[in-house]
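U., I forgot to send this yesterday:
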Amino acid sequence: IELYYFMRCDFLIIHVVKKGENLYEISKLYGVSYNKIATDNELTNPNELVVGQTLVILSGTRKHRILPGQSLYGIAKMYGVSIASLYASNPILNNSIIIYPGQIINIPPSPEKLGTIEVNAYALPGTNMDVLAKTLPNLTYLSIFSYQIQANGTLKGINDVPLIQAARRAKVAPMMVITNLKEGGGFDSNLAHTILTNQAIQKTLFSNISSTLKSKNYYGLDIDLEYIFPEDRENYNTFLRRAVTTLKPLGYSVTTALAPKPSGDIKGLLYEAHDYPVHGALANHVILMTYEWGYTSGPPLAVSPLNEVKKILNYAITVIPSKKIFMGIPNYGYDWTLPYVKGTKATALGNVEAVDLANKMHASIKYDYTSQAPFFNYYDTDKKEHVVWFEDARSMNAKLRTASEYNLGGVSYWTIGKYFPQAWLVQNSLFNVKKLIE
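Result:
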């Protein structure tokens, strides 16, 4: 598969760079200008491509210069269009199958998209506003992370007003996020227990939540309580019922973030208190946090291996209406030093940074078809080997098509701090994005 110039993905073309190729040659291959490919993919250095790097070639009416050995059938398959549409766009062919090398023909636009989805993305208060502005057109919701619940039911506020205002200007619904994070980081099981077992504290908490939703002009609430004691499972369900009965009459939606469970009886502090059927029945949407198989302090793995993600979805759709499910997608990767030693930590990096690192280290990018994720190896200046797992256009295409395959309501990105243009190029080639506010 690595020998092919491109992968055809129904509604877009993803080109995988081969050894010796340059952007000028690639632009001629598809009849799309050098500058357009460089600009669409926001290439850091268009003159320095990495073997195995992906380029998204946007469709539309294009010119194609016929190469030796090409046929109309092969060209139609390459661009995902019918031969009939090729004839319709090229009357000069006169319905003949005879073509000549060097001949230039018109390629019609690609067919209809897979459908319409809702798209959520998490943003931190310090998100670069230029990155935010480029990202918002691709979203339905912006979940601003996060208001930390205090033990007395108050909330530790964040500087969210600029993000809320920017979201609403872009017709994106801003979502308030509450968490049981503690000072210094990490989710606090004891704090969650205090909140979930005390009705008086909950009354104060929901009063503060309602006030914040109204004063800040939020669209709804995203509840992200994690590492809850297993014995608090029913207490969390009762808390969620109270959230819904309090907020829905006020016109606010309620979303919950859930740990990735392959079954209802999986054990562990991360999983047991997250009751998929109850959350699916009560919440407007649930966000499945289908990432972090490969994580900072763990062994090298794809962050979101699709074979594992599908195990989560196979269970989730049996107990939650599929249209309520948002599949989590990571917008980052990790760099591990090899051999992996337990207790050591990987370095997080953005997907564009990963390609730049591969270029700097003269590494070739490979692709694992089981996990549907790219990776590469390199040696640092101390001659230590590294492996980097990240996301590219191929992995994004695979994940987004999986959302369609499972008839999900949408997807949710963690986080948008590092801009990754190919994610949006692929997403918008496959789907229309639903907007909820004017």
